[in-house]
Amino acid sequence: MKIIISLFFALTFNSAIVWADNLISYIQMPISTQNFLAFSSQGLSIKECKSCPTIKLRPQAKVAFYEQNTPIDLKEATDLFLKETYDHVSVYYDRTSNTYDKVVFGGHIEIEPIPQHPNLQ
What we know:
This protein is an alpha+beta fold. The chain has one domain (25-120). Helices cover 26% and strands 40% of the residues. The protein is built from two helices and seven strands, in the order αβββββαββ. It has helices at residues 2-23, 74-83; strands spanning 26-32, 36-40, 43-47, 54-67, 70-72, 88-94, 99-105. Strands 1, 2, 3, 4, 5, 6 and 7 form a seven-stranded mixed β-sheet that branches. A hairpin with a 4-residue loop joins strand 6 (88-94) and strand 7. The radius of gyration is 18 Å and the shape is elongated. It starts with a helix and ends in a 16-residue tail after the last strand. The relative contact order is 0.19.
């Protein structure tokens, strides 16, 4: 009986992990700048950790870039990427389509309401 209960628990636990991944497709991923591998107008590459696999993302039709809480354009975002001004970058992306729509240099947006970026209007 204990074996059956243990087996049931193991199968249920593994299923819950898969279900949880499928429930939330749009996420904010805070990453260290050393794991922010590539950045251009065509897309970006990140790693969740040093030993994690590389995630390649494509931009959505409209993408917003922020330096902390201030909207910036692609050129300024590229400069921040090259200079590695901040320790962390947050990428908002859809895990099912591997597309992103926001990149925040310097962490995450901390004010409410989130300022509307000109690219998203």
